[in-house]
Amino acid sequence: MNEKIAVYPGSFDPITNGHVNLAERALVFFDKIIIAVAYNPNKAALFSVEERVDMIQMATKNDPRITVASFNGLLVEFVEKQGASVIVRGLRALSDFEYEFQMTLMNRKLNRKVDTVFLMTGFKWFYTSSKIIKEAASLGGSVRGLVPEIVHQRLKEKYPLYRNVP
Q1: Residues tagged active-site
Q2: Is the pLDDT of residue 31 over 70?
Q3: Which of 94, 96, 95, 75 is nearest to 86 (CA)?
Q4: For residue 31, what is the DSSP state?
């Protein structure tokens, strides 16, 4: 029997509990999830790709069905090299859908063997995004409970105003 593998791509700068929740829920449909951290030279990242991979590995280490890798270049090529044929994406709002729909159509044009599956973000995490997490932490607001503990600790290293947050 063939293993059903899906790739969950993103910048994950940083990973949130919403991302982790989505990866765990995707395991209902797939045997293995590869969280794929994208190199994106067009985005100024807070954490290096290596730091993001490390944090994701620490946040998901309890589930051997979730692995983490980084990639550069076309997502559909990475998906195929991993032996997968499905991309998993999360949706929070209608604005997410418009962007994701465009990306899905382009990925389909580039490789007709790769499909995309959308999962709604868990209700608890609807308002959470990496951008909002970074903004709150940079101003000294606590994001504990919205991110894995390792991310909470690493944010203290990045933001002086966040260092005293319990």
Answers
A1: 19, 43, 92, 130
A2: yes
A3: 75
A4: S
Q: Residue 10 and residue 119: Cα distance in Å, rounded?
A: 14
* pLDDT tens digits, one per residue of 83-132: 999 999 999 877 778 889 999 999 999 999 999 999 998 889 888 999 99
Q: Can you point out the beta strands (E) in 26-113?
A: 32-38, 66-71, 86-91
Domain boundaries, the chain: 5-126
Query: 35 near 8, Cβ under 8 Å?
Result: yes
What is the value of pTM for the model shown? Answer: 0.94
Q: Smallest Cα–Cα separation from 75: which of 15, 9, 119?
A: 9
Is the model's pLDDT at 28 over the cut of 70?
yes
The rounded distance, in Å, linking the Cα atoms of 19 and 107 is 21
Compute CA 161 distance to the chain's CA centroid, rounded to the nearest angstrom: 25
Considering the domain 5-126 in this protein, what is its CATH number?
Answer: 3.40.50.620
Integer Cα distance of 162 and 142 in angstroms: 8
pLDDT, position 127:
87
| Strands 86-91 and 115-120, bridge-based pairing | parallel
Residues in Cβ contact with 147 at an 8 Å cutoff, skipping those fewer than 6 apart: 14, 15, 16, 17, 133, 155
In whole angstroms, what is the distance from residue 82 CA to residue 70 CA? 12
